[in-house]
Write a structure and sequence with these properties.
Glyco_hydro_43; binds (2R,3S,4R,5S)-2-(hydroxymethyl)piperidine-3,4,5-triol; five-stranded mixed sheet; 41% strand; mainly beta; signal; glycosidase
């Protein structure tokens, strides 16, 4: 009886003790199980982080077990933290629904959700990549949801292919021929939009970056002042570069972009770019991974999703996907270091956030 009591006590205390250890040490272990405040592995894949009123909010895809987890059965999960180490489960920010007529019916694909705060409207605006149920990845749509409070509930607004009837700022006259380019083919109906992220610049202007043109070319599209729609000016970032998984950040007045190649859930070499202006032109800086040939070839087994400013530097956030058991996907967070003026990423089994608190 006494033994049983002690075992139950140990079970009850285990997750809490784990969380305390993490908080005391302030360390991050890429690829490990990351328990939330209930001791459950964090379920926020393809995610991004919004810092609001001194709290970090991590939004991501809620996955379920097995390969069914590659479709949306629950929605977008949100967690909160004051230290990026101890995460409180704040529940489902945006839920799928059972109405078969809804874009976000259970079984659709909801990927790479990102949330930004609009100070003018005081709304939290979520964008995500949506694939309509039963159509594989053919829909290639962007979707928007909105909330009055950061953790939600978010109310679904609409989905669309962005920038219908508008030419990119940097397309040549010759490329406006539908026989020549996908961007011209899709001019009337709107541009394909798959992997995506959002970015708010220092002046409050927000941008939507998405993999377009059959995943061959990323676009960057400015949003309206309320962040709810494309504003009408957009640019092709890396024409025919075959980039996806965009993660953008700003450092010393320049814009940096980290992407992956196109190999589905399988990892491939990361790529990095720099630009003086947000609409480009972008200059290739090569693979940001420093390490063994294997680590460079598969980006430590992960794929970029977001870059979070922290302290005096930045945290690279990626996903180590487990498509056969999606819920077991892991998180690849590593400090961004600098090799002269190139952002680089090295592997650490564990690393301390303090490394980013000293001047870079
Ligand atoms: C790679 C993308 O980066 C993921 O977000 C997801 O869309 C998979 N492809 C699907 O195969």
């Amino acid at each position: 009886m006494r033994l049983l009591f002690l075992s139950v006590l140990c079970l009850l205390l285990a997750p809490v003790a784990g969380a305390e250890t993490a908080m005391r040490s302030g360390t991050i272990s890429p690829g490990a199980l990351w328990p939330d405040d209930k001791g459950v592995h964090i379920n926020a894949h393809g995610g991004g982080i919004l810092q609001h009123d001194g709290v970090y909010y991590w939004f991501g895809e809620h996955k379920i077990a097995g390969d069914a987890g590659n479709r949306a059965h629950v929605g977008v999960h949100v967690y909160s933290s004051r230290n990026l180490i101890n995460w409180k489960d704040e529940g489902i920010a945006l839920s799928v629904v059972d109405d078969p007529m809804s874009d976000i019916v259970r079984g659709s694909v909801i990927e790479r959700p990102k949330v930004i705060y609009n100070a003018k409207t005081r709304k939290f605006v979520m964008w995500f990549h949506l694939e309509l149920k039963g159509l594989g990845y053919k829909s290639a749509r962007s979707a928007v949801a909105v909330a009055d409070t950061v953790t939600g509930p978010y109310h679904y607004v609409n989905s669309f292919r962005p920038n219908a009837g508008i030419w990119p700022l940097n397309l040549s006259e010759a490329d406006k021929d539908p026989a020549r380019t996908v961007v011209a083919r899709d001019f009337e109906t709107g541009q394909m939009a798959r992997d995506m992220t959002l970015f708010v610049d220092d002046d409050g202007a927000a941008y939507h970056l998405y993999a377009s043109e059959e995943n061959h070319t990323l676009h960057i599209s400015r949003l309206t002042d309320d962040y709810m729609r494309p504003a009408g000016d957009y640019a092709r970032m890396l024409p025919m570069g075959n980039d996806e998984a965009p993660a953008i950040f700003k450092h010393k007045g320049k814009y940096y972009l980290i992407t992956s190649g196109l190999t589905g859930w399988a990892p491939n070499p990361a790529k990095s770019y720099v630009a003086d202006h947000i609409f480009g032109p972008w200059t290739a800086l090569g693979n940001p991974v420093r390490g063994t040939l294997e680590q460079q070839a598969i980006t430590f087994g992960g794929q970029s999703t977001f870059v979070l400013p922290y302290g005096n530097g930045h945290i690279f956030m990626g996903d180590i996907w487990r498509p056969k058991d999606a819920i077991d996907g892991r998180y690849l967070w590593l400090p961004i270091e600098w090799d002269k003026d190139k952002p680089v990423i090295r592997w650490y089994d564990t690393w301390n956030l303090k490394t980013l608190e000293t001047p870079q």
